[in-house]
Amino acid sequence: MDQLLIFFYTYKEAIFIIALSIFLGIEVISNVPAVLHTPLMSGANAISGVIIIGGIILVGHADASTINTELILGILAVIFGTLNVVGGFVVTDRMLEMFKKKKK
Questions:
Q1: Domain that holds residue 61
Q2: What is the pTM of this model?
Q3: What is the largest CA-CA distance in the chain?
Q4: N or C, fewer C-beta in 10 Å, the chain?
Q5: Tally of CA atoms within 13 A in the half-sphere of 68 that contains its CB
Q6: 54 and 86, same structural domain?
Q7: Residues 21 and 50 in one domain
Q8: Cβ(37)–Cβ(15) under 8 Å?
Q9: pLDDT by 10s per residue, the chain, length 104
Q10: 3-state SS of 65-101?
Q11: 59 and 81 assigned to the same domain
Q12: DSSP state, 1?
């Protein structure tokens, strides 16, 4: 327990910035008009693509003989980034289907 308190005391500024950015992000995204959701989704897909590339580089440089933090973080980055990109394309495709004329 003491180590946890020391960790929080040492990195209190970084923890505060992360917590503040989470609340700010939720507030900003919840106030986005519906018209802007598709461009924001495209931007999120681009950022996730960069995360995937970074994860691949991280996995490539990690020591594969042992399971370490670099390997785990790289694999998680690739998995979550891929899920985000695929989900973004699925949602964008469904939104674009709404604007097509229905066949009679």
A1: 33-97
A2: 0.59
A3: 69
A4: C
A5: 10
A6: yes
A7: no
A8: no
A9: 888 899 889 999 999 999 999 999 888 878 877 667 667 777 777 888 898 999 999 898 888 788 888 888 889 999 999 998 888 888 778 877 877 777 76
A10: CCCCHHHHHHHHHHHHHHHHHHHHHHHHHHHHHHCCC
A11: yes
A12: -
The token pair that represents 46 in the structure block: 């681009």
* Whole-angstrom distance, CA of residue 73 vs CA of residue 59: 8
| Residues contacting residue 68 through CB under 8 Å, at least 6 positions apart | 62
Residue 65 has which token pair?
Answer: 């003989």
Same domain flag for 39 and 86: yes
CA angle 70, 45, 49 (to 5 degrees): 35
Helix axes 2-10, 12-30, angle to 10 degrees: 70
Q: Which two tokens stand for residue 60?
A: 């490539």
Q: What is residue 16's three-state secondary structure?
A: helix
Q: Fill in the amino acid letter for 98.
A: M
- Count CA atoms closer than 13 A to 75's CA, side-chain side: 9
Q: Is 41 strand, coil or helix?
A: helix
Q: Is residue 40 part of a domain?
A: yes
